[in-house]
Design goal:
There is one protein chain. This protein is mainly alpha-helical. It is 74% helix and 0% strand. The radius of gyration is 24 Å and the shape is globular. The chain starts with a helix and ends with a helix.
C-alpha cells in the first residue's frame, strides 16, 4: 500500500481521536451538575470527572485558586490570567500532540499491516494500541506547561511529571478504539484497487526465535526490574541534580511494567492467581511477535518496533482485564473503580516494546539469513542412495 493510501485513514483516525478527546473533556463539567450526581451517584460522578479532567479546557478549581492566590493586591488578577493562559496553552499542545503522534504511527501500521482479509483483526488491535500510546505521549509533552500553570514548576519537577503522565488514560481506552475502527474502515476502502499486497515468508523456527528474544526483553522489565527490592532501588535513586533531582518516580513509570514480591505467609494461592496476569502478558507478547513477521508486508525494523509496542500495550490491557475479573474487591468498590487501572504501564510498554521490537527484528534477520545460507550450502540427496 502506498503512503498516500495509508495517510488518508490515518488522518481520519487522528482527527476523530482528537475530536472525541475534546468532546470528552468538554463533558467533564456536566458531571458536577446535580442531575448527573443523582443519576450516576456521587462517587461514580467524581471518578468519571477525574478521568475526563485531563482533556478539559476548563481549568480545575484547584488551579483557579492557586492562580488567584499567586499575586497580591492589584497584581492578583493579572497573575491569575497568566497562569490560566499557561493552562490553555498546555491543552492546545496536548490536543495537537495527540494528532501529531497518532498519524505517523497509524500510517506505518496501515501501510505495513493493511486491514485486508487475514490481517483485519491484527490491524484493528494495533491501531487501537497505538492510539493509547499517542495519547500518553501527548499528555507527557504537555505536562511541563501544566506544571508551570500551577505556579510551582521548580519544586520536584520530575515527580510531578511522573504523576501527570498517566492522566486521562482510561478515556483513551474507549476513544482510541473508536478511532481505530474508523481508521480500519477507511483503510479497507483505500486499499481497494491497490493491487496484491505482499506477505513476508518467514521460517517458523526464525519466527519463534525472534519472538522469544523479544519476549525476553519484556520479561526484563516485568520480572527483573519489577521485583520489589529492585524497584525500590530504582525508586530511591536520586542524584543531586537540582531541577532534575529525584528521578525515581519517573524511572519507574518508564521502566516498570508491573510489581511483584515473594508470596506472603499463607497467601501462596492468591500470589499464584495474581501472577497469572503476568504470565498472560508474556504469553500474549510471544504469540503476537510470533505472528507479526508473517502479517507484515515487509518486516522492517521500524514496523517490527511499532508492532512490538502495540503488542505490549495489548498484552498489558489483557493482563489488567484478567486482574480486574479475578479481584475479589469488585463487589465492594464497583467495576468503575476497578477499571481505573486500565492503561497503567503504557510508558513502560513503549520503552520495552521498542527494545523488544528492535531485538526481534535483528534476531529475525540474522536467523533468516543463516537459514537461507544453510539451505543453499546443503547438498541435494543422491537419488541412487534413496532407491537402495
Amino acid at each position: 500500500m502506498t503512503y498516500w493510501r495509508a495517510a488518508i485513514p490515518a488522518l481520519v483516525g487522528g482527527l476523530l481521536l482528537t475530536a472525541l478527546l475534546w468532546w470528552a473533556g468538554a463533558s467533564a463539567q456536566a458531571l458536577r451538575l446535580p442531575g448527573s450526581t443523582d443519576v450516576l451517584g456521587g462517587r461514580a460522578a467524581s471518578e468519571l470527572e477525574g478521568w475526563l479532567i485531563a482533556w478539559s479546557y476548563d481549568p480545575p478549581a484547584s488551579l483557579r485558586y492557586a492562580a488567584e492566590s499567586g499575586g497580591i493586591a492589584d497584581t492578583a488578577a493579572a497573575d491569575a490570567g497568566r497562569y490560566l493562559g499557561l493552562y490553555a496553552t498546555a491543552m492546545q499542545i496536548r490536543f495537537f500532540a495527540v494528532f501529531a503522534f497518532f498519524v505517523p504511527g497509524a500510517v506505518l501500521l496501515v501501510r505495513r499491516l493493511p486491514p485486508v482479509r487475514g490481517r483485519l483483526t491484527a490491524a484493528l488491535a494495533a491501531v487501537w494500541a497505538w492510539g493509547l500510546v499517542a495519547g500518553m505521549l501527548a499528555v507527557t509533552v504537555s505536562a511541563p506547561w501544566l506544571i508551570a500553570a500551577y505556579g510551582h514548576g521548580s519544586y520536584r519537577l520530575l515527580p510531578q511529571l511522573a504523576s501527570m503522565i498517566g492522566a486521562g488514560r482510561q478515556v483513551l481506552v474507549g476513544t482510541a478504539l473508536v478511532a481505530a475502527v474508523a481508521t480500519v474502515v477507511v483503510a479497507r476502502i483505500t486499499a481497494k484497487g491497490a493491487g496484491p499486497l505482499p506477505q513476508e515468508v518467514v521460517p517458523a523456527r526464525a519466527a519463534r526465535l525472534s519472538a522469544s528474544v523479544g519476549t525476553a526483553m519484556i520479561a526484563v522489565s516485568l520480572v527483573v526490574l519489577s521485583y520489589q527490592p529492585v524497584a525500590a532501588a530504582i525508586q530511591t535513586f536520586s542524584p543531586d541534580g537540582g531541577l532534575f533531582a529525584e528521578p525515581g518516580d519517573l524511572l519507574r513509570t518508564w521502566l516498570l511494567l508491573g510489581a511483584w514480591d515473594t508470596p506472603a505467609t499463607g497467601g501462596f494461592g492468591d500470589w499464584i492467581l495474581y501472577r497469572a496476569a503476568d504470565v498472560l502478558l508474556l504469553a500474549v507478547v510471544w504469540c503476537a511477535l510470533r505472528r507479526l513477521p508473517a502479517l507484515l508486508t515487509r518486516a522492517t525494523v521500524p514496523a517490527m518496533a511499532v508492532g512490538a509496542v502495540c503488542a505490549t500495550v495489548l498484552a498489558l490491557l489483557a493482563s489488567q482485564l484478567l486482574r480486574i475479573s479475578t479481584d475479589g474487591s469488585g463487589l465492594r468498590w464497583g467495576l468503575l473503580h476497578l477499571s481505573g487501572v486500565l492503561g497503567v504501564g503504557v510508558p513502560a510498554a513503549l520503552t520495552w516494546g521498542l527494545v523488544a521490537g528492535v531485538a526481534a527484528a535483528v534476531t529475525l534477520r540474522v536467523s533468516v539469513r543463516r537459514t537461507r545460507t544453510t539451505s543453499a550450502t546443503t547438498p541435494a540427496p543422491d537419488p541412487a542412495r534413496l532407491d537402495v
